[in-house]
Amino acid sequence: MAFFLETLIGGLMAGMLYALVALGFVLIFKASGVFNFAQGAMVLFAALAMSRFAEWIPQWTGIESKIFANVAAFVIAAIIMFICAWVIERLVLRHLVNQEGATLLMATLGITYFMEGVGQTLFGSDIYKIDIGMPKDPVFLMESLFDGGVMVNQEDVIAALIAATLVIALSIFFQKTGTGRALRAVADDHQAAQSIGIPLNRIWVIVWCVAGLVALVAGMIWGSKLGVQFTLTTVALRALPVVILGGLTSVPGAIIGGLIIGVGEKLSEVYLGPYVGGGIEIWFAYVLALVFLLFRPQGLFGEKIIDRV
User: What's the Rg (C-alpha) of the chain?
Assistant: First the structure.
């Protein structure tokens, strides 16, 4: 039972991180109808910016405090992501209003390669580290209930708490603030939102800024766990099944989908992997997403599209 709980908790922790990346897809799609294939590149770019500025700031200021360097690097990286959001809206999205979905998808693919190239030019292509002080040693819980207790990785717990806090904050932002309600109005109907005076371009900038902030937090966490390297862009590919499962237009769906995928990957690898030679964790999420596409293409919480003719 203790081993099952360890696997379950590990899956939940991984699922929260998947949900964090998937949230970037959902936010942008809800507000603009754009499937943002550049989300993985945004995670990489943000992580590169934070890791490099955390390294450069002590050299520039002479202040050796790691906390000061990390906070300053986070703020600078957030400003850079906000600038990127403004540039993307100004130079790309503004000129592609009401275009076909395939056109917008290709535009985000172009943004992906551009951000990867610029990131490599500005920050280098080596493997960098982000050290935000998260403890990496495991702890043992419920030792009175199970012999030896349940081993939990402290870093995973803290990362999941950070992700959950951001998700809750965004949920409150969308539900309780005027800007959040404007974002939801734009998501429901662009033309109706414009007709009542909601500026579509400004809303898109805000959404891309929020998605950039989400990418920065995701990049900070994944960079702390895995190191900042160009394979971070594949994190977005791991989040695609989460989006399909939860629904492209649902923030709660991204959370629930992430948890289901995370737990399913871990449990299937541990309990089914030995019978099929392992490797289930690599393809489990995509097979589950395929099943949902066959029977419920809008996902668990997505809106069913009905065309009336």
Answer: 20
Residue 282 domain-assigned?
Answer: yes
Report yes or no: 264 and 284 within 8 Å, Cβ to Cβ.
Answer: yes
pTM (predicted TM-score):
0.85
Q: How many helices (H) and strands (E) does the chain have?
A: 12, 2
- In sequence order, the β-bridge partners of residue 77 are none
- Rounded distance, CA 16 to CA 121, Å? 31
Instruction: Quote the CA–CA distance of 216 and 111 in Å, as a whole number.
Output: 17
Residue 253's contacts (CB-CB under 8 Å, 6 or more residues apart) are 26, 245, 246, 247, 299, 300, 301, 302
Give a yes or no: residue 152 inside a domain.
yes
What are the DSSP calls for 201-233, one per residue? Answer: HHHHHHHHHHHHHHHHHHHHHHHHHH-B-GGGG
Q: In whole angstroms, give the CA distance from residue 204 to residue 31.
A: 7
Residues 54-63, mean pLDDT to the nearest whole number: 88
What is the H or E stretch that residue 99 is in? Answer: none
Give a yes or no: residue 300 inside a domain: no
What's residue 304's pLDDT? 63
Domain boundaries, position 150: 2-295
Q: Is residue 229's pLDDT more than 70?
A: yes
Nearest to 48 by CA among 115, 128, 108, 113: 128
The total number of structural domains that make up the chain: 1
Residue 308 burial (10 A CB sphere; 0-12, 13-18, 19+): exposed
The count of other CB atoms within 10 Å of the CB of residue 3 is 12
Q: Above 80 in pLDDT, residue 223?
A: yes
